[in-house]
Amino acid sequence: MRAIQYLGVNQVEHTEVGSPTITPGHVLLRVAAAGICQTDIHIRAASEQMIPTGVVLGHEIAGHVVERADGVDTPSIGDLVVVHPVWSCGRCRQCIAGRENACLNVGGRMYPAATPGISINGGLAEFVTVPASALVPAAGLDPVFAAVLPDAGLVPYHSINAVKDTLRPGSTAVVIGMGGLGQFAVELLRALTSVRIIALDVKEAALAAVRHKVDYTFVSGSSNVSEQVMEAAGGYGADFVLDLVGSSATLQLAGAVVAPYGAIRVPGLSDGVFKFETSQLSTSLPWGASITRPYSGTYQDLHDLVALAQTGQININLVRYNFDEALRAFDDLEAGKINGRAVVVMD
User: Fold this and answer.
1) Which pTM was predicted?
2) How many structural domains is the chain composed of?
3) Could you write out the DSSP letters of every residue in 66-109?
4) How many CB atoms lie within 10 A of CB 249?
5) Enclosing domain of residue 259
6) Domain of 10: which CATH number?
7) Residue 335: is it exposed, middle or buried by C-beta count within 10 angstroms (0-12/13-18/19+)?
C-alpha cells in the first residue's frame, strides 16, 4: 500500500509498504484523511533521529472500520472513527483515573505512551491497524475535519477543560499562536465559555483569520504587547494563558500577563526556557499563578470534543491535499504558507 514513511534523518518519502496485519484487540481502518502538523515537520527537519526508521507518519487519523480482530464487537464495519493518539495500557492507576495521557506502563516519566505516526505506524497510508480501545465514533462528521480533532482539537480542549472552573463570565483568556491549534482554541473558548478572548500571533494574516471571533488581537512580537494585553484584560491580567508556541519570548510574555492565581498552559514545543523566580523584589509570576506543560488529552476529552464537533459549533480553516501532494503539504507548512491545518485526503 502507499504510505508516507520516515526513512532516517531528513528523509520523509512516498513509499510502498506491506498492508498491516490485524492483531488481537485491534481493528483495521481504511484511512479517509490524516492531518499533518508541526511535529511532523520537526521530525523531518531534525538533525538527529527523533523516531524509529521506517515508521509511517500520521498521528491525526480518521478512517472507516474494515476489519475487526476476534472478540472485538464495536465499532461496526463501515463506521467512521477517529483515533485517540495515546495508546495507553488502560490498567495502571493513571489510566483508571482517566489520565491515559500519563500512562505509567506504556510511557515513562519523560516520554509519552505509544503514539501512531511517532513510535508506531500511523495514518499517512491507505490502511492502519489501531487498538479498538483507542477509537472514538465520529458519525456525521466530514472525515477531513474529524481527522484533525485528535491533535489540533484535543490539545487545546484538554488545556481549556483542565481550567474550566477559572473560565467564568468576565474572566480573560489569552491564546498565543493562531495556527490550527490556536484557531481551535478560539472556537472552543467561544463554544464552552463566556470569557473575554485575546488572540496573539506574530503574523497579521493569522490574526485576521480569527479577528471576527475574538475581543482583541495583538501582534505578539511588538514591543508593547504585554501592556496592550494587560489593558485589554482590565489591568489585572489574564485568568488563563494558552501558549501554543512555547518559545522563550512567548513564555516570558505569558508570565508578564497572567493574573494572580491565573493558569498558564504550554503545549507549544519551540525549545523555550522559562525563568522561575521566588524573590520578593523580582518575580516571573504573580502570587498563586501556575504554569503547566500538558500533553495531548484524555480519552474522555476526545469523546467530548467529537460530541461538540457533531453539534456544528466549532470549525477551523483546513487546507486539503490529495495523497500524491502530501510532501508538498510538509513543504507548505514548514514555509508558513498554511493558515489553519493541513490534511491529506486519501483518494
Assistant:
1) 0.95
2) 2
3) EEE-TT---S-TT-EEEE-S-B--S-SHHHHTT-GGG-SSSS-S
4) 15
5) 155-292
6) 3.90.180.10
7) exposed
| DSSP letter (8 states) at residue 159 | H
> CA–CA separation, 198 vs 243, rounded Å?
12
Written as nine digits, the cell of 319 is 487546507
Cα(328)–Cα(331) distance, rounded to whole angstroms? Answer: 5
Check residue 107 and give its pLDDT: 81
For residues 343 and 320, the answer to whether their CB atoms sit within 8 Å is: yes
Please check the confidence at residue 239 and state whether its pLDDT lies above 90. yes
Q: Which residue type, as a one-letter code, is found at position 288?
A: G
Which SS3 state, helix, strand or coil, does residue 60 take?
Answer: strand
- Is residue 266 helix, strand or coil? coil
> What Å distances lie between residue 251 and 126, 241, 285, 304, CA to CA?
39, 10, 11, 29
Task: Give pLDDT tens digits for 201-210.
Answer: 999 999 999 9
DSSP 297: -
